[in-house]
C-alpha cells in the first residue's frame, strides 16, 4: 500500500468497528445508513471497475452528478484507483461542459441519467471512451457496472506530488483554468485542519458533521468530507441545504460547515436557538466574506462563535481563526496562517509590506497546487519569482498576526459561495444580437452576499429587452451566474483612459438587493 495515496490515509482513519454508521442521509425519501464497511467495499468495487477499463495512469474522471453518497464514493474510488477527479458544478450547461471536457480530455465522464444524451455527445467529441450515469436514487449505469466487481482493492501506489484532482476555477481573464491538486496538497491540509479544529476521533467521543454543502468544490468535498473521514466521524448528509431541516438535526451534531448564505438563512429561522445548538462544538464559515453582523447575530442567538477560515481552489485552506480559545476568533478576519503555510502581503512591486499595510495576499506551502492544467504560462504569471502564489485577494496582516481580507484585485463576484467572473458573462452578453457592450458587476445582496447584475448598451438602432436578455442567458449558463438584474443604458461610464468605471456602476446599484 502506498502512503502517498490520500485514500490510503483516509481509509486508515476509519474506526476499528467498520459496522458503525459513517453516513446517514437526511433528505432521501427514507434515511439511508452507510457503514464504514460500505464505504470501503463500495469504493473498492468502483475502483475495480475503473481498473477494468484499463485506463492510462492518472486519467481524468469528470463527474457532473447530483449530490449523493455514491458520488462521494466515486471520488474516493478515483483516488483509490490512482486517477484524477474532476468535479463539475451540476448547474453548468452544455457550453460550459463542452469547454471543460475539451480542455481536460477525461477518459471517463459520469453524468446524471437525464443529461446522458448531450453530455455523451460532448464527451465523445472530446475523445472520452467511457460515459456512465449516476443518479441520486442509486440508479444509473455506473452502479450497474460496479455491481459486477470484487469488493476488495489495493489502493494504487502513488507519490504525494501525483495529481488527485483538477478543480476548474475562472481566471481574471479568459476561460476557466484547471487547478491541479496533488494527493500531498489535500492530505497535508486535511491533517493540519484535524489538529487545528480539534476534531475528536471516535476514541475521544467522536464528532458528528452536518454536511449540507455541494461536493464539487473545495469546501464541501475537501474541507468537510476529508475532515470527517480523516477522523472517523459520522456525517449527517443533506443533498440540498434546507435551513429548517438542518436546524432540526443540529441537536445530534457537533460540527457544521457553511458558506455565509447558509448562516444568514439559518438565522432567519426562529427554531435556531441555544437549545438546538447545545451539543455543537464548532461552526465553520468560509468561501466568501462573513459579515460582522452575521458573526455577531450568530453569537447572540446561539452562544457560539463562528470560526471563519480562508481558502481557495488553488491552495485549499490558507488561514483559520483559532479553535481555542473561542474568544480568539475575531469577526471580520480570517485568522492566522495555518501551521506550515506561509502567508504574506506584498505591494505592486512584489515587496513584502509592514504589519497593517494593505496589499496583495501571497501564499506558499505544501497546500499550494501544482499549476494550471496545460497552462504553463498562466501558471508562471500567478507565481512570484521566489515561488509564492498570488491569490488575487487584497488584505493585511495585523501586528498580532490576524489576516483580514479587504477586497480582491481579481475581477470576481462571489455569490452565495459560488464564483462568477464578470468577463465570462460579458462575453456571453456581447455575443447576443443587438448588444454593443456590457459591464457585469457584483452588488450587495442580503442573502447571497453579492449578486450579479449587468449594465448593457444596445447597438445603434437595436432595441434591447432586459428580461429577454436574462431569459437568453438562463438557457446558456449556470443559473447562479445569470444576472439578477439587467439595465439597458445609452453609455457605460468610462475614465480618461477609456476604462469602464465599474466602481460607479456598483455604487449606483448598491441598494438594489441590500437588506
Ligand atoms: C442558487 N441561486 C443562486 C445561487 N444559488 N444565485 C446566486 N448565487 C448562488 N450561489 C439561484 C438559482 O439560480 C435559482 O434561481 C434560485 O437561486 C434557486 O436555486 P436553488 O439551487 O434551489 O438554490 P438554493 O438551493 O437555495 O442554493 C443556494 C445555496 C447554494 C446557497 C444553498 O448556492 C450553495 O450551496 N452554495 C454553496 C456554494 C459552495 O459550496 N461554495 C464553496 C466554494 S469552495 P432561478 O432564477 O433559476 O430560480 C471555495 C474555497 C473555500 O470557495 O474557501 O471554501
Ligand atoms: P474558489 O476559487 O472558488 O476556491 O474561491 C476562492 C476565493 O474565495 C478566494 O480567493 C477568496 O476571494 C474567497 N474566499 C474564500 N474564503 C473567504 C473568506 N473567509 N472571506 C472572504 N473571501 C473568501
What key phrases describe this protein's structure?
single chain; alpha/beta; Rossmann fold; GMP Synthetase, Chain A, domain 3; nine-stranded mixed beta sheet; four-stranded parallel beta sheet; 15 helices; 24 strands; globular; binds malonyl-coenzyme A; binds adenosine monophosphate
Rg from Cα: 23 Å
In spatial order, strands of the major sheet run: 2-1-10-9-11-12-13-14-15
Mean pLDDT: 96
Give a short account of the largest sheet: 9 strands, mixed
Oligomer: single chain
Q: For the record, what is the CATH homologous superfamily label of one domain?
A: ANL, N-terminal domain
- Helical stretch tally: 15
Overall, the morphology is globular
Structural class: alpha/beta
Terminus-to-terminus distance: 55 Å
Query: Helical content, roughly?
Result: 25-40%
Q: For this structure, what is the CATH class of one domain? A: Alpha Beta
Proportion of β residues?
Answer: 15-25%
| CATH topology grouping of one domain | Rossmann fold
Which runs of at least 5 residues are low in confidence (pLDDT < 50)? none
CATH architecture of one domain: 3-Layer(aba) Sandwich
Ligand inventory: malonyl-coenzyme A, adenosine monophosphate
Number of DSSP-assigned strands: 24
Amino acid at each position: 500500500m502506498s502512503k502517498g495515496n490520500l485514500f490510503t490515509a483516509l481509509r486508515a482513519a476509519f474506526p476499528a468497528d467498520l459496522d458503525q454508521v459513517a453516513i446517514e442521509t437526511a433528505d432521501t425519501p427514507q434515511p439511508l445508513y452507510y457503514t464504514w464497511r460500505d464505504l470501503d467495499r463500495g469504493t473498492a468495487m468502483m475502483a475495480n471497475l475503473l481498473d477494468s477499463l484499463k485506463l492510462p495512469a492518472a486519467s481524468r474522471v469528470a463527474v457532473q452528478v447530483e449530490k449523493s453518497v455514491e458520488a462521494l464514493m466515486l471520488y474516493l474510488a478515483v483516488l483509490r484507483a490512482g486517477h484524477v477527479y474532476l468535479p463539475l458544478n451540476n448547474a453548468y450547461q452544455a457550453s460550459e461542459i463542452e469547454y471543460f471536457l475539451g480542455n481536460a480530455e477525461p477518459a471517463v465522464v459520469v453524468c446524471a441519467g437525464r443529461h446522458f444524451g448531450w453530455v455523451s455527445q460532448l464527451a465523445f467529441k472530446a475523445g472520452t471512451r467511457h460515459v456512465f450515469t449516476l443518479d441520486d436514487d442509486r440508479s444509473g449505469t455506473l452502479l450497474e457496472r460496479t455491481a459486477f466487481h470484487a469488493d476488495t482493492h489495493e489502493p494504487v501506489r502513488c507519490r504525494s506530488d501525483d495529481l488527485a484532482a483538477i478543480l476548474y476555477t475562472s481566471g481574471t481573464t479568459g476561460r476557466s483554468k484547471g487547478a491541479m491538486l496533488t494527493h500531498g496538497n489535500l492530505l497535508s491540509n486535511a491533517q493540519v485542519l484535524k489538529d487545528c479544529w480539534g476534531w475528536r476521533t471516535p476514541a475521544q467521543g467522536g464528532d458528528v458533521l452536518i454536511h449540507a454543502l455541494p461536493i464539487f468544490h473545495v469546501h464541501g468535498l475537501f474541507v468537510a468530507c476529508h475532515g470527517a473521514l480523516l477522523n472517523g466521524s459520522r456525517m449527517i448528509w443533506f443533498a440540498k441545504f434546507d435551513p429548517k431541516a438542518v436546524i432540526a438535526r443540529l441537536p445530534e451534531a457537533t460540527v457544521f460547515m457553511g458558506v455565509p448564505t447558509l448562516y444568514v438563512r439559518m438565522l432567519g429561522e426562529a427554531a435556531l436557538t441555544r437549545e438546538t445548538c447545545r451539543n455543537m462544538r464548532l461552526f465553520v464559515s468560509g468561501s466568501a466574506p462573513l459579515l460582522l453582523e452575521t458573526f455577531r447575530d450568530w453569537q447572540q442567538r446561539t452562544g457560539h462563535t463562528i470560526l471563519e477560515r480562508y481558502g481557495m481552489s488553488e491552495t485549499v485552506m490558507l488561514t483559520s481563526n483559532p479553535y481555542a480559545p473561542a474568544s480568539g476568533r475575531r469577526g471580520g478576519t480570517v485568522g492566522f496562517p495555518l501551521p506550515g503555510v506561509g502567508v504574506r502581503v506584498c505591494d505592486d512591486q512584489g515587496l513584502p509590506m509592514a504589519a497593517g499595510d494593505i496589499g496583495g495576499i501571497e501564499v506558499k506551502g505544501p497546500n499550494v497546487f501544482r499549476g494550471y492544467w496545460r497552462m504553463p504560462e498562466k501558471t508562471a504569471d500567478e507565481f512570484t519569482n521566489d515561488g509564492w502564489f498570488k491569490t488575487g485577494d487584497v488584505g493585511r496582516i495585523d501586528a498580532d498576526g490576524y489576516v483580514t481580507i479587504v477586497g480582491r484585485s481579481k475581477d470576481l463576484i462571489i455569490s452565495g459561495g459560488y464564483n462568477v467572473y464578470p468577463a465570462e458573462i460579458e462575453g456571453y452578453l456581447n455575443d447576443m444580437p443587438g448588444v454593443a457592450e456590457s459591464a457585469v458587476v457584483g452588488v450587495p445582496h442580503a442573502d447571497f452576499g453579492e449578486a450579479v447584475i449587468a449594465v448593457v448598451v444596445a447597438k445603434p438602432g437595436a432595441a434591447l429587452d432586459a428580461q429577454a436578455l436574462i431569459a437568453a442567458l438562463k438557457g446558456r449558463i449556470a443559473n447562479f451566474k445569470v444576472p439578477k438584474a439587467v439595465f439597458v443604458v445609452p453609455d457605460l461610464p468610462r475614465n480618461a483612459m477609456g476604462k469602464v468605471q465599474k466602481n460607479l456602476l456598483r455604487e449606483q446599484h448598491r441598494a438594489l438587493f441590500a437588506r
